[in-house]
Design goal:
The protein has 279 residues and is α/β, with parallel strands linked by helices. It is built from 8 helices and 13 strands. α6 packs across α8.
């Protein structure tokens, strides 16, 4: 059995099938980990969503910001401007797909391989146990009766600094933003959502979240940051890398990347045609 973690798909179904062919993926013996943002901007969001759902236990995904935005559009809380998303909203199995999507986790942890998968990252002031606890708080809401209220209160950049005393929508919004939107923060853990360029291009003493991370013993797979591209960070003991960024900009004409989860993690990529006009 092989495990492959794959970067942001964003509706690029043809590129996904090409990559799976290249790695000789067998859904009966292998497993896919998907870092979220299954939909939006690419041409085939409906086919992508159906394919991942139909893989059943052969696939494990986490929620990304575009996936949550799709849920908001489905319920009429946000307007849709993407023809690929409209295909989902018009599909006869749309409700089934949306119910499946909102039941997906924000964080997936593989104890056996010591890997944790999230869409954007792990908040640097949380340890893994705290991150799992806070992810579970929001997952419970998303899969419960009050999830529409959360979607209606999901958007916004504040609060941008964690306090355990946060409550209500502020608490859930912060949790959501860390797992699905985070890139940069200040040394005190204050998040910045306006910067999305490569490290070194920002001002105001911002650093990538993983430079402050509190998870040095944990291997973390994430996506979301297409301008960062493929990135792996080695720890100070010169052991194998423990930070793996897998959004290599497929929808922008970059690559779609799979990371084979082994002791010496192997990288497999394919080139992708540009399918979106602007970021």
């Amino acid at each position: 059995m092989a495990i492959y973690a794959i970067g942001d798909l964003q509706g690029c179904y043809e590129d996904l099938t090409n990559l799976l062919e290249k790695i000789n993926f067998d859904q009966h013996t292998d497993k896919l980990w998907l870092v979220g943002d299954l939909v939006n901007r690419g041409p085939d969001s409906l086919a992508t969503l159906r394919f991942v759902k139909n893989l059943g236990n052969a696939a494990q995904t986490v929620l990304g910001n575009h996936d949550l935005h799709l849920l908001a559009m489905y319920h009429g809380l946000k307007k849709n401007k993407d023809s690929s998303i409209q295909q989902i909203l018009d599909a006869p199995d749309c409700e089934e797909l949306m119910n499946w999507l909102r039941s997906q986790p924000l964080l997936f942890h593989d104890k056996q391989n010591h890997f944790t998968m999230v869409h954007a990252g792990l908040y640097p002031l949380w340890n893994l146990q705290q991150a799992q606890q806070y992810a579970a708080e929001l997952e419970s809401v998303l899969s419960g009766d009050d999830y529409l209220d959360f979607l209606n209160n999901m958007y916004g950049d504040k609060p941008n600094l964690w306090k355990e005393t946060l409550t209500g929508w502020d608490r859930l919004r912060f949790i959501c933003n860390t797992f699905t939107r985070m890139r940069y923060c200040k040394l005190n853990g204050k998040l910045n959502f306006s910067e999305n360029g490569v490290p070194g291009s920002t001002k105001n003493n911002l650093v990538p979240w993983f430079e402050l991370n509190n998870h040095k013993d944990e291997k973390i797979v994430f996506g979301h940051w297409s301008t960062l591209g493929y990135f792996q960070e080695k720890n100070e003991l010169s052991l194998p890398p423990n930070i793996y960024a897998l959004d290599t900009g497929c929808v922008w004409g970059g690559k779609l990347t799979a990371l084979k989860i082994t002791k010496t993690a192997q990288l497999i990529s394919i080139n992708c045609p540009k399918r979106a006009s602007s970021i």
